[in-house]
Amino acid sequence: MELNFSKMEGLGNDFVILDDRAGQIEAIISYPDLAKKLCDRHFGIGGDGIILARESQDHDMRFVIINSDGTEPEMCGNGMRCFAKYLYEKKILTQRSMRVETLAGTVIPEVFVDENDLVTSIKVDMGAPVLSCRDIPFVCDHETGIEESIEIPGIQSVTVVTVVSMGNPHAVIFVPDIHGVDVEGIGRAIEIHGRFPEKTNVEFIETVSDTELKMKVWERGAGITLACGTGACASLVAANLTQRTGHRALIHLDGGDLEIFWDKDSGHIFKTGPATLVFEGSISI
After folding, report:
1. Which residue, 237, 203, 238, 195, is CA-closest to 220?
2. pLDDT in tens, 76-126
3. Number of C-beta neighbours around residue 94 at 10 A
4. Is pTM beyond 0.85 here?
């Protein structure tokens, strides 16, 4: 079977995007097997994951994302921006504000275009953050997990995390110097820690000011990536709850910057940033 694809990236978080509204791809190969094949950077296209457009009964479109290791996360903020650009520029959807079905619920991206009707940036209504430990889920004696101590085997000092869900779980760790952090060692250990029954993403945050944060991320199922949109949202929430920032911050990730705003009136998080088409092609599977 010949598959047409678009390779896209959002701040260096890269994806292979496919149109499977008819379900023809899934009838040939399982999505986890397809993701492992296509995301291989030596023998495939290369990517942090694949994203598939599927029909939805009650939304404009359904968003399916599979990590490079074959696992299926609930949502991906950078992937959603790429998805919205893909849908609009391929004329699959013509409206600039879209209701997208995800495993994390309804997500509403809005595209902004130039004089040539090409998407320049995307603002995504990410919904409200989830703080209940039971719903994240995170094993904890308290209702919320704000600055909770967690012990990691092999690491002498206790790590302090603030846990937030943006439809997928995040453990946010504030550090004095982001460049001195063992992102892989600590990130991997916390991802699979027993207090996170469904594993977790891990964000390391250095506070620059009350309106700026620096971030590095270890993503569940993908490892170190250049950016994580849901992680940036969770980090702003954690920074606000621990009185490090206000309701808005510019977050500097390895792949670029995201503007995050927590609208306390609606309770929703809004994320604005770019998405870029890298190349298009076809591949036989």
Report:
1. 203
2. 999 999 999 999 999 999 999 999 999 999 999 999 999 999 999 999 999
3. 8
4. yes
Instruction: Fold for 2-127+273-284, please state it.
Output: Diaminopimelate Epimerase; Chain A, domain 1 (3.10.310)
Q: Say how far apart CA 96 and CA 80 lie, in whole Å.
A: 14
Q: Which CATH architecture has domain 148-267?
A: Roll (3.10)
User: CATH 3.10.310.10 residue ranges in the chain?
Assistant: 2-127+273-284, 148-267
pLDDT tens by residue, 267-281: 999 999 999 999 999
C-alpha span between 8 and 220 (Å, rounded): 20
Given a contact cutoff of 8 angstroms between Cβ atoms, the answer to whether 233 and 269 are in contact is yes
Active site residues: 76, 228
- 204 DSSP assignment: E
Chain centroid offset of residue 72 CA: 12
Closest C-alpha among 209, 211, 218 to residue 159: 218
